[in-house]
């Protein structure tokens, strides 16, 4: 009996069947690739349509948006602010935690209730805290679980940038440190939003790596539009524009845009959370990190404090 499969009709049938299977597999792969590209473009088109009209924020952002709108008047009396905030128990608890942290109570004097916490922090920081909580809740939502590795890295980078911005503002400029912290906190909001939207497309959920490349190209512009929709002050929005575009680092940090740019570098790499395999101490990023090396231990300490507060 011959052992040459191609010499027998049966063997020939087996070869033909395998060839069909191979062709079907290749065709399926092509279809998946086409579907993947279609989902990428569909997501971008959907986002563009949303941004051109009324932005629909995730459910986790609704409370923060309501709170920010309710607190637009910075002259509201403390009892009234406390009454508004108390409707959101999580925000109220985080505010008390923040007010009693070493960031805002270095001598350990406790803020024993919500009014005391708000009085210490101020209405602007109350609004910032609400937004930080919304971002944290979005990151932990069930829909985002598929992108857990990215969201964890993005959140860690966000908090570290916010910490770096606060310290840079306080130590290098006369810019309000809390304003700088807000700028650092929201500088990558577009990336959060794109991850949230990507989770709604099957092909993108099964291939989370491909979402990186969409975020690299689009998150800055999308973020600017979202910040406008949230009513973030214009100077903070402008400070986030082109925060990752390579350029020579400023000789001295003077503006809010300088703070966000340098803070973003100090928080990781010049190409930030998407490129964690790059050496953060190489090239231009390394020069910046060396220049502000004396601030890095404090940035790390403040980052850990913020992680504890917004966990």
In short:
69% of the residues lie in helices and 0% in strands. It has 311 residues and is mostly helical.
Please characterize this protein's 3D structure.
This protein is mainly alpha-helical and about 300 residues long. It has two domains: about 55-140, no CATH class; about 145-310, Hypothetical protein af1432 (Orthogonal Bundle). About 70% of the residues lie in helices and about 0% in strands. The protein has 15 helices and no strands. α2 runs antiparallel to α6 (about 125-140) and α4 packs across α6 (about 125-140). The longest helix has about 45 residues, at about 10-50.
Keywords:
0% strand; single chain; 311 residues; HDOD domain-containing protein; 15 helices; disordered N terminus; 2 domains; globular; 69% helix; Hypothetical protein af1432; mainly alpha
Give the SSE order as H and E letters: HHHHHHHHHHHHHHH
Summarize the main sheet: none
Sheet-strand content, in percent, reads under 5%
Q: Which residues sit in consecutive blocks of at least 5 with pLDDT less than 50?
A: 1-31
Number of continuous helical runs: 15
- The percentage helix is 55-70%
Apparent shape: globular
Please state the CA-atom Rg, rounded to the nearest Å.
25 Å
Protein name: HDOD domain-containing protein
Pfam families: HDOD (PF08668)
InterPro entries: HDOD, RNase_Y/CdgJ
What secondary-structure arrangement, pairings included, does this model have?
Blueprint (H helix, E strand, L loop, with lengths): L8 H44 L6 H12 L7 H8 L3 H11 L14 H8 L1 H17 L8 H25 L4 H10 L2 H10 L3 H5 L1 H23 L3 H7 L15 H11 L16 H9 L4 H14 L2
Helix pairs in contact: 1-11, 2-6, 3-5, 4-5, 4-6, 6-8, 7-8, 7-13, 7-15, 8-12, 9-11, 11-12, 12-13
